Amino acid sequence: MAKRIFSTVLLWAIVAGSLWYFRTTGAVILIGVIATLTLGEFYKLLAGAKLAPFDRLGMMLGGLITISPWLQQQHGLAAEHLLALAVVIFAFRIIGERTTETRVEALASTVFGLVYVAFMLQYLVQIVIFNPYAPEQGLILFIWLVAVSKFCDVGGLLTGLAIGKHKMSPEISPKKTWEGAIGGVIVSMGVGALIAWLARDHLPAHITPLYAALIAGPIAVVAIVSDLIESVIKRRAAIKDSGGVIPGIGGMFDVSDSLILTAPVGYLLLQLS
Residue 252 and residue 153: Cα distance in Å, rounded? Predict the structure, then answer.
């Protein structure tokens, strides 16, 4: 637990430092690095499940897809165009670099990683560049979404340890409980409201603490599902942690797991508002 707390504090310090010193560019680079490392671990899990993805080139293209909203502002490279190009590239590669037994699996698993990790996380970049005329809004909304997503896990863990009795999905994640899930959602709503109140002078007028709390609720629910999906993939590969780069937590996939599904949901909720 001590290692996990230390690693969590250190990660938040890195995020805060990157945003403070490098602003929008720092946030985009940080998201790109996280997505690339996550995709590498994701492909490792799929390889453990005997699916043989193209990991190295997949990571390179995945990094570009993730930061493509920012590249689109600069050079007109949209995420969907890069994704389509990647499919063409890997279709060519499976002809000469995989056996008959693994060609379909290699193409499907590689493209699945690009969609599930890179394309989904590019919505974080879209949030960062939310308002080019007021860049601080995008940075604050990015921090808000990350905090709402990750504090759901913290709240769920603490609540589950304290009063958790009813298992949510014992076959997928034996330690998760319904009490923990409810506690995580409540904590996320509180964190969402608090950040909106603290940053009220820098956010659009309609994002009040009450509104932030209301949309934090469904985002927290999605975060729980996103975390369960990672558990499904790890169980399929028979691996406990996606990596060991972060002491007490595991790999980068263990850090970004909840963000993969909350990124597009959060972006859409903010857009609808």
Answer: 15
